[in-house]
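so i finally got all the pieces together for this one. its two components total, 946 residues if u count the protein bits. some of the lines might not be protein, just check the labels. i wanna see the whole assembly predicted at once instead of chain by chain like last time, that was a mess tbh
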Amino acid sequence: MVEISMTVNGKPVTAQVEPRTLLVTFLREHLGLTGTHVGCDTSQCGACNVHVNGMLAKSCTMLAVEADGAEIVTIEGMAAPDGTLGVIQQAFQDHHGLQCGFCTPGMVMSAAALLRENPDPSEEEIRAFLEGNLCRCTGYHNIVKAVRAAAEAMG
Amino acid sequence: MPKDHGIGAPIRRREDLRFLTGSGRYTDDINLPGQAHVHFLRSDVAHGRIKRLGTGAAAAMDGVIRIFTARDFENVGGLPCGWQITSRDGNPMAEPKHPILAEGKVRHVGEIIAAVIAETPEQARDAAEAIEVEIEELPAVIDMAAALGEGAPKVHDDLPSNLCFDWGLVEENREKVDEAIRNAPHVVTLELVNQRLAPNAMEPRVAIGDYDKATDEHTLYTTSQNPHVIRLLMGAFVLGIPEHKLRVVAPDVGGGFGSKIFHYAEEAFCTYAAKVVGRPVKWTSSRSEAFMSDAQGRDHVTKIELALDEEGHFLALRSETLANMGAYLSTFAPAVPTWLHGTLMAGTYRTPLIYVNVKAVFTNTVPVDAYRGAGRPEATFQLERVIDKAARELGMDPVEIRRRNFINPDQFPYETPVALVYDTGNYHATLEKLEELADLEGFEARRQESAARGKLRGLGINCYIEACGIAPSNLVGQLGARAGLYDSATVRVNPTGSITVHTGVHSHGQSHETTFPQVIAEMIGIPEDQIEIVHGDTANSPMGMGTYGSRSIAVGGSAMVRATEKIIAKAKKIAAHLLEASEGDIELKDGKFTVKGTDREVAWADVTLAAYVPHNYPLEELEPGLEETSFYDPANFTFPSGAYACEVEVDPETGKVEVCSFVAVDDFGNVINPMVVDGQVHGGLAQGIGQALLEQCVYDENGQLVTASYMDYAMPRADDLPSFTVDHSCQTPCTHNPLGVKGCGEAGAIGSPPTIVNAVIDALQRGGIEVDHIDMPLTPVRVWSAIRAAS
């Protein structure tokens, strides 16, 4: 077992983990943050996306020990402390950007990373950036609309 | 201004709040105290005899609790099939046993050989790898035609051949159809493949079995579209647990698309094993396991012939299909290529004579069952492809040939030659709307603009119909269903007027929690936020058949309407008593009961309170309380239909196809929430375009599944698809259900594949390249090869 410490959604955590524990397993099973999902085992679907030190990362492709000392933000950290949805989350609701909700946390984390990097993306740029997130319900149409609307709302 | 309340309002979804904040409760988010984990050892060969299973070393490994093999399931039934097809010769289909764990032989890659239960998932997996397996590999049958050939290896040794059934519709028409085709001025023939797909709900399947020794009660948490169906199948036919001792919970479920209808071995295993080991047992599928254990879809090989007269009128149609069942019969597999496929061969047209033959075949592949559309995409694809080919051969416009053959609006109800009665529709209206929205007149200018950039632009048209709202129980019983297909709702009015609805259907993306309250809000006149929808738990909802076949609002919603009507009838009696008026004079509007023609009124919540605090109440005539249940059995299928158009650009140098635009005009009858309906169509279109251009399950000649991960199975991504134009303003309400609704979940997946393929063929032909068909998926290499072969 290895001891690791990190900040998750602003809170410090310290735990003992097996070296082979994936970051997503640590988040879900050790910390109970089950908003981050596992949709594949080959790093393609993006349902497990989180932010590690401000960078978008697939938490199924990182060991928990690699995140030692890092600042992690998950979907549970995206709304205001009083529960008010963030701008991107609100845009997803307003534009029906989710159906079953399983890919949604990863989509929101990807959208946040995109808008940080490119605050005014075109539809084509949004589609290209979301290439690493699979959704089987929405056909992406309303996800793209939601991200575009969030960009406009953030001005 | 759109409505902001009730039926027809595009209100935002209440479900979203939990899904957007990571607070959803999917099955894998559930962990029970004392829970152990199972890992399934799966066959890595497609066909073989199990000679030896050495579990000793594995059993001694750290954390291992118990290892199960087929021997532990000797007293347990196989997985049942829910639909029996009768062959043309009157014999029932071949129905081999579908064991929980492989018995003696393995018949497809991914079949479960053994199961290891351990303290952690990692320990279970490590120990499974240590099991010594000796399998004598046998020749595998993968190709359907070869499987039916003389001397082919048999998937099931105890069956006479690999033929499951040989079915005809309508057998009495066979000779008449043959004769009409022989004598017709034009016969257009097309041979095509509707390739095998993996449904790929983003949430992999999960099962957790739990057993309470004190009460002798079993609970199964599972990723299901229909928990009551699982309880019935697993309880009665597999494990022998009576329903009152078995609870099945399907909480938030991350997509289904058909693949979560069926009863799977892993569910039965976890339920059974939890009692044996005395601890909850959890299984979470990996995506790789999902590819080889979730039922797959489609996989038809078809020859279709359309006979026409000189003016392009359809005279007769003959369709012959080989349908792959895989190694075993999944729950509803036999219904898909038969009653959900052959019956749709009339499409939206007046073809007077139709004969459909389907031979279902066992092969050493993963079982095949319903996937979004289930049989109806296969019917639509062949029909709309052969019509397009006919238009070309006769020199007719593809829009005109369809219009000329449409069933006209004054012909409803319309009885087709393939056993359906369409209640209503207006195919001319949807096609006209399509011509307007897709700007068909402007196509030529866009084609020239593409040509100037060296691209071949094509236009594809398709007019589909589907049979949804599944289904009248007495009818499907005659057709071989071993279940009724009604649905149910309990409407429980709480004392202060809020309402809890327990429904037998299940939402796994369909938005029932938002849309079902809109119906009751409209009926009673109270706000939607006073109404809660509860689903997904056999312990708190009446027996219902679940969600698939675009049936939730048409069948489950109708049950809810019927129960609410009973509530309103009773509430009016109470209101009449409180207002000292005659019951016949009471009206309910905007949440108030009024006496007709007076200003006397009593509020909804005062009436509901009186029902539960019956001090001033007609107790001698009326029971207290306000709760009603209805079971609704539909009188007919519903028949959504529509007209689709898309434009593609083909790069003749690379064969790459780009979808430039896609317009979908659908007639869903009345619409409860247009925003949600748009979303359902978008998702269906993406899956259909995925089938047309990207997706395919590929097995090699030994039965190895080559496409067993997202590295090899091409899922549609955001940058593969265009934005869509969707419209559902053409509405011919269903005539036989109380909401006039038809269902919208599958339309996009049914209508889009032929639209895309028609467009690509159109692009090539307009570019002077004589290609009349390419099998899906139309990948660059396939299109490029077709171009090269033609030039």
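Chain A touches chain B through 58 residues (CB under 8 Å).
Chain A has two domains: 2-77, 87-154.
anyway lmk what u think
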